[in-house]
Amino acid sequence: MSNQQDYDCIVVGAGIQGSFTAYHLAKNNKRTLLLEQFLLSHSRGSSHGKTRIIRKAYQHDFYTHMMEECYLLWAKLEAEANATLLRYTLPLMEFRSILERSQVPTETLGPEEFSQRLPQVSLLAGEGALIDTTAWVLYANWALRAVQGGVIKDGDQVTDIQPGSTVTVTTATEVYRAESLVITAGPWANTLMAYTGLQIPLQVVKINVCYWKEKVPGTYGISSRFPCFVQLGVEGSQYHFYGLPSNEYPGLMKICYYMGSETEPNERDQQTDRTDVHLLSQFVSHYIPGLEPEPAVVESCLYMVTPDHHFVLDCHTHHNNIIIGAGFSGHGFKFGPVVGKVLCELSLGQMPSYDLSPFKIQRFQSNSKSSL
User: What is the rounded average pLDDT of the residues 135-139?
Assistant: First the structure.
């Protein structure tokens, strides 16, 4: 009879990616342990908060392809949990080429038609928009709770990992063993990979998540079906702006800048740079005059960013039974169902359902190395 501390797979990190990995492993009848260093539910990583935009519109075909199954799996989780995890709205997108190439249903609005449809938004001269009619609002915190299950040990930090044919994981309280290990630790992935001798060029950045007060309540609310939006190419900004209708806080619209400032994950509250907040204030003043130009609430979120902003979904360079899911670069939550599926497949030694070549560790070449 096996020891109670022995498992088929250990997943470290109970954010959306790790939770879906454990979910798929359980569906495969594998003895799975999901480890989380913080007490659930916490707000220290990347998977907290109430809402995310879920969409098929992407500049890269491999993401659009993955999103097809993501929608099906999100709907399946909704049915299993008997809870509303998705809500329809009309996000605005500008990814014209990928939308047309992958036949994602869209509608083009010229400046005049746009101003008639959405008088609450003031576009600059000559600007128009694409509407991706497949996009929804995803209730992130409800989704995370719905997918978490099985054997979960929270409030238990990993202090060492010993690779081998059986992987040994030591925490502050226990020693666990498993045939395979999946690391989905978000901003703490670098620390855990270092135990295994692996280094990947991942950067942790702190995002200021800003909420802006409506001058007239209900103007930008989800109940009035005000759309989510993504705005690209605003002068003076390297990255895009995005927004979701007021929902999390009554009368406050969530509008954020895609990028933030580098930080250490355990020292994020010491990172006080507000350059992104200044850019957002300018954006709100120009585009959404029905909001107060200074944020009413500022929260924080951590991204783990790769140099090319694509995920890492791969086996360890020296240990095939250690799987890495990292670097989701601020756009990974919506992919949780499929990311968890392929990480499960890799941990079981199966052929992954998708071409993972865009997500290989080896693409970093000289930037990626092992100390073993």
Answer: 86
Q: Is the peptide bond before 102 cis (omega within 30 degrees of 0)?
A: no
In this model, does residue 149 exceed pLDDT 90? no
Indicate the length of the chain as a whole number.
Answer: 372
Percent of the chain with pLDDT over 90: 61
Residue with tokens 């908060």: 49
CB 111 within 8 A of CB 123: yes
Question: Running DSSP on this structure, what letter comes out for residue 291?
Answer: B
Q: How far apart are CA 304 and CA 317, in angstroms?
A: 20
**Spatial separation of the C-alpha atoms in residues 301 and 268, rounded to whole Å:** 9
Mention every residue, 6+ apart, whose C-beta is less than 8 A from residue 270: 263
Q: Can you tell me the distance from the alpha carbon of 273 to that of 257, in angstroms, rounded to the nearest whole number? A: 13
Tell me which amino acid residue 199 is. Q
Is a pLDDT exceeding 90 seen at residue 56? no
3-state secondary structure of 272: coil
Residue 293: name the closest of 277, 305, 308 by CA. 277
Whole-angstrom distance, CA of residue 205 vs CA of residue 301: 8
Q: Which backbone phi and psi does 324 adopt, to 5 degrees?
A: -115, 125
Task: Identify the pLDDT of residue 228.
Answer: 87
Q: Map tokens 């300018």 to a residue.
A: 282
Pairing of strands 151-153, 136-139: unpaired
pTM, 2 dp: 0.91
Q: Which of 257, 353, 361 is nearest to 318 (CA)?
A: 361
Q: Give backbone dihedrals phi and psi of 303, rounded to 5 degrees, phi first.
A: -110, 145
In three-state secondary structure terms, 88 is strand
Reading the block at residue 57, the tokens are: 């519109």
Q: Which residue has the tokens 């992919």?
A: 335
- pLDDT above 50 (res 97): no
Residue with structure tokens 């140099």?
Answer: 307
pLDDT at 17 over 50: yes
Cα 156 to Cα 147: distance, rounded to the nearest angstrom: 20
Judged on CB neighbours under 10 Å (0-12, 13-18, 19+), 78 is middle
Domains of the chain: 6-47+142-201+308-364 (3.50.50.60), 92-132+204-305 (3.30.9.10)
